[in-house]
Task: inverse folding
């Protein structure tokens, strides 16, 4: 019996020792894995934000100060930051589009407001033809059509002197002034910017009228001294008499300067008498009376309207 008990005790002791060893090994393994889990299971915010999408809430353990899960707070912050970035991008794109639109509008405006050279030259040529056509009715002009063209033209220009020629007051100061007004108005009619200007203190108005003065001066000089002029066709000034010169400086100054004064005077009449008084009384209806008054009160405007194929009473800034 004692032998049996001794044997049983030995067997139980040998069995208990491996079990303890296995338990110790198991506990060691669990502790190791738990440490590894703790090391990798709590990623920082930087790591999470770097590997997660904006729309995906990162999984972060713990809780915020208001007992709100930390992962939800981080996700909301990311979404808010992304929304703010999208708004900024949208504003940037909007400003860019508006900037491009403004530049295109400015370019379009500049392209629209231009000077139309071809019709301006055609209308000026028609006016020049009418003037020389009238001169051809004069015997003194027809008499000088013969002879060497360039030599007689040069001699006529060389005889330019003094202020007053032998023409009458009406020719020198009325007819030449109307001529200058007509050539200046041709410039205005063919300038998109100039024809929109209304008489007043506007800088743009006076700039446009000074440009009309320059245009009128060029055409006045051409009519007096140019290749298709009184000096070349009919050789006005060819014979230098002891009395008043037939070719004088007065015409070169009076035509553009007083002619521009005629243009400005018609602009003032058109605004204050026609538009703001008579047309207002007629409720701005273009009646027969208004058409007649426009035609006679602004003669150079009416004449140059005909040159461009418009009715004499035509106005570019209103009916």
Result:
């Amino acid at each position: 019996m004692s032998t049996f008990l001794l044997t049983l005790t030995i067997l139980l002791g040998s069995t208990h020792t491996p079990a303890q060893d296995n338990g110790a090994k198991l506990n060691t393994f669990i502790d190791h894995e738990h440490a590894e889990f703790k090391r990798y299971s709590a990623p920082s915010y930087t790591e999470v934000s770097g590997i997660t999408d904006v729309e995906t809430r990162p999984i972060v353990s713990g809780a915020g100060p208001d007992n709100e899960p930390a992962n939800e707070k981080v996700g909301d912050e990311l979404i808010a930051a992304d929304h703010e970035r999208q708004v900024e991008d949208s504003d940037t794109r909007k400003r860019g589009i508006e900037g491009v639109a403004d530049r295109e509008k400015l370019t379009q405006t500049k392209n629209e407001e231009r000077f139309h050279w071809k019709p301006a030259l055609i209308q000026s040529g028609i006016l020049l033809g009418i003037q020389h056509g009238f001169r051809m009715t004069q015997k003194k002009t027809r008499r000088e059509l013969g002879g060497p063209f360039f030599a007689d033209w040069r001699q006529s220009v060389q005889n330019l002197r003094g202020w007053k020629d032998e023409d009458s007051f009406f020719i020198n100061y009325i007819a030449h002034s109307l001529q200058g007004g007509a050539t200046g108005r041709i410039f205005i009619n063919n300038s998109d910017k100039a024809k929109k200007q209304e008489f007043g203190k506007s800088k743009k108005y006076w700039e446009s009228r000074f440009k009309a003065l320059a245009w009128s001066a060029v055409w006045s000089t051409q009519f007096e001294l140019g290749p298709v002029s009184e000096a070349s066709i009919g050789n006005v000034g060819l014979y230098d008499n002891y009395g008043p010169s037939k070719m004088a400086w007065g015409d070169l100054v009076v035509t553009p300067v007083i002619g521009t004064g005629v243009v400005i005077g018609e602009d003032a009449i058109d605004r204050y008498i026609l538009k703001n008084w008579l047309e207002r009384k007629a409720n701005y209806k273009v009646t027969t009376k208004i058409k007649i008054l426009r035609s006679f009160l602004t003669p150079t405007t009416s004449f140059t309207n005909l040159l461009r194929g418009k009715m004499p009473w035509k106005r570019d800034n209103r009916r």
DSSP finds eleven helices and no strands in the chain.
